[in-house]
Amino acid sequence: MPSKNLIEIKAVNYWYDPRRQILMGIDMVIPRGKVVAIMGISGSGKTTLLRLIGGVMKAQSGDVVVDGVRVNDLDTQATYRLRRRMGMLFQFGALFTDMSVFDNVAFQMREHTNLPERMIRDLVFMKLDAVGLRGAHSLMPSELSGGMARRVALARAIALDPMLMLYDEPFTGLDPISLGVIRNLIRRLNDALGATSIVVTHDVQEALDIVDYVYYMSDGKVVAHGTPSEMRAMTEPLVHQFVYGEPDGPVPFQYPSRAYAADLKLEARVG
Question: What is the pLDDT of residue 116?
Fold first, then answer.
């Protein structure tokens, strides 16, 4: 019987330079069929964690287990096989600029399957229809708005019906209408595909509206986790400041510096 958790991360440590650790003692579980957010300010280690899950990098210690497989134990070919069961929505879409919308979505089907072109055509139209852009299939990426490009990238990401969807800052740079569309699509597509989704974001309210569970990271550690309602009610100062966007708190408004009077040399003027 498969585990109820698609991903289990246990005591993971990672660093680029031993003098500066990026992830420290990370423990997480991602249940099957759920949408889970990983939140935190920039530089807290969120995207690094996605790279470990996808096998792009290997943890120096600890376990990253995806669908019962320890990612650190995989060779190159096995890692590629695992990645073919994942979909990735990059921060700014990352569409192939010299391919049409249709060919962008068809790319994975042509690369990783032996399906006839007629079936690929039908599947591409189905994926584009799911994101509301079937009528844009012949356009080039340069002809798309930012929100449309993100939706095409999402259609490409779900082209092979992945078991796991990874979203890296999916709301960045979108207008309110496009943001609402992407937010709702993440939830609807996850449920329709029977997939599991991880949303890495610092857009708090948008994520809390659609996810089942939240992990909050700071300085490479998980400092809090809970349901959206639990996160909104949390009184821990760091989490409260982040959730409600307060300008000052544990993360200070002022960068550390000398006394203001000393920088303005006020004492010297008074003397």
Answer: 92
